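As described in the Methods, two query proteins were run sequentially through the folding procedure within a single session, without resetting any intermediate state between them. The first query and its resulting structure tokens are shown here.
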Amino acid sequence: MLASDQQRQQLRDICEQLSEALESSQTLGGSGEELTQIQTTLLQLNQQMAALRNRKMIEFYSPDYQGDFRNILPCSPITGYFNPIAPNLRIWQENNNVYAEGSFGKIHEGPPNCVHGGIISAVYDQVLAFTAIANDLPGLTASLTIKYRKPTPLLTPLRFTTWLEKQKDRQIVIHGECHSGDTLLSEAEGLFILYKK
């Protein structure tokens, strides 16, 4: 059974709270008593949630995304509203380009104070795929090449810009860039194969 609008909002709020908890866990400190209290609370919460496991109410895929690309894969670890590890990105389309803006927290850290390169790669993979969808060319990733120009800072506003480079038969080539202000941090090229039902 799919979630009602109220349940969807409740589940989304739960994921946002879990995301906050995960972020806090990366720099957590405290007395033995304080940490014991958190341990106990989390144990109780996990037991409560485990009792409701395997009753999934959110669809895996939603082709009717109503202009919000984050609705396409609602539980995606990269862009899903219903996944607490997904970075909080605003993703939108202008003409044939797709843009994503947001920042990354400590749960996405690789080198000190920098976003893990694998996270950046995963965001490119997702946003480039959204660009294919925006151009009515839904495809599956065949290859992805990332050029890291500079370290990607944590807790800093970033912007991904992606565009369709070319299409030939079933092959779709999409490019992307990530900037912090005017600074180019990375570039990507994805080859997608047009999906046929």
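Immediately afterward, the second query was submitted; its sequence and tokens are:
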Amino acid sequence: MDAKSLRDLTIEELQEKHRQYKEELFNLRFQNAIGQLKNTSRIKDVKKTIARVLTVVHEKEQGLGIGGRR
């Protein structure tokens, strides 16, 4: 999910996305640990998406617009 589409969501929706991605990351790590995960690059993608979600949440909480400037 790209940052542009994340910025259209509300803080509550972003927090729900964060929870969903954290759960997915947990499941991917579990699958990797027991040797069932075929696409290990998905772990990296989910971690980056979590960072994007948290960045947009922080921007919205601080009242910052796109680009991070007031």
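The mean pLDDT is 91. We note this only descriptively and draw no conclusion about the first query from it.
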